[in-house]
Amino acid sequence: RASAVEMKRKLCDYRPDITQASFISSFTGALLSLKRSGFTKRLVVNDHSSGETPVRRGWKRLAFRFRGWWVGRTVDAILPVSHAIAKRDIEQAFLPAKKVRVIHNGVRVDSFPNPPRPVRVIVRVVFAGQLIPEKGVMTLLQAHGRLQSSGIIKYELLIAGKGTQEIELKSHAEGRGLERVQFLGHIDSVPELFGSADIVVIPSIWFEAFGLVAAEAMACGAACLVSDAGALPEVVGDCGRVFPAGDDESLSLRLRELIDDPVERQRLGTAGRSRVERMFTLKHSVEAKVKVCEEILGGK
């Protein structure tokens, strides 16, 4: 992480009118010092941070409320990538609501294929992401086990990704005799995988700031099944199915419904692609950020 000295050294020849920061907390002292010491005139922070903020009580709540007010005096705009994050920024981090503006993440839609999906005998269910506990892959395997025990066999489960939980997940699948599940490891083309999927499952159990993988799957026309962690329901809207995070029984029921209903899968896939084109394009995201910068520079 860059120190205040390093940041200032990089900016000293430019002294920009406005600086946008991403993947750096609004509360980072080195970042705030850029404006307080005059190395930038305006400061905008994009908030992509996942994870819950602890509920603080008593004197800690008062201290964090003061911290939010103090930081709000320096930062010109906070741009969370979802309304879920905006709510957290205002209600738990105590940043000033008037400076919080939601700008969703964007995807380059034309990079994601949306091929026709003929009804297949074996439905393809896909997960792609890090194999870490927070992503809820164990919940997906447990749901898969429930379906297998119920005699639901007309689908395959493909799991793409690497991570610290990989050995545990493979051992779980092997130890319980789970069939029709493949661990693909790292793949070079997620769009190609999603383009071949009938259903994409995002079973996260931690608070997702946005859930870019959901937007990418929707852009490919796959039916999305997501947990209610963080902003995932916000991303899919009424174009996906939602289940309680960590609830493998509920996930198995929702998954079975989609496996058995090709018409609904097609409807969700078509609606999801349209939703991405309306709300989550890279062009829309960039234009919204430019507009915020113009307003900040023009208003002061």
Topology, please?
Layout: H1 4-11, E1 18-22, H2 29-36, E2 42-47, H3 58-74, E3 77-80, H4 83-91, E4 123-128, H5 137-149, E5 155-160, H6 166-175, E6 181-185, H7 190-195, E7 199-202, H8 212-219, E8 223-227, H9 232-236, E9 240-243, H10 248-259, H11 262-279, H12 282-299
Parallel strand pairs: 1-2, 2-3, 4-5, 4-7, 5-6, 7-8, 8-9
Secondary structure tally, helices: 12
In the predicted model, the low-confidence regions spanning at least 5 consecutive residues are none
Q: What percentage of amino acids are in beta strands? A: 15-25%
Helix fraction by DSSP (H/I, runs of at least 4): 40-55%
Q: Strands of the largest sheet, in order across it?
A: 6-5-4-7-8-9
Give the overall shape, derived from the CA principal axes: elongated
Distance between the termini: 31 Å
Fill in the keyword field for this structure:
300 residues; alpha/beta; 6-stranded parallel β-sheet; 9 strands; elongated
Structural commentary:
The protein is of the alpha/beta class and 300 residues long. The chain is built from twelve helices and nine strands. The chain has a six-stranded parallel β-sheet, with helices on both faces. It is elongated. The two termini are 31 Å apart. The mean pLDDT is 92.
What's the short story on this structure?
This protein is α/β, with parallel strands linked by helices and 300 residues long.
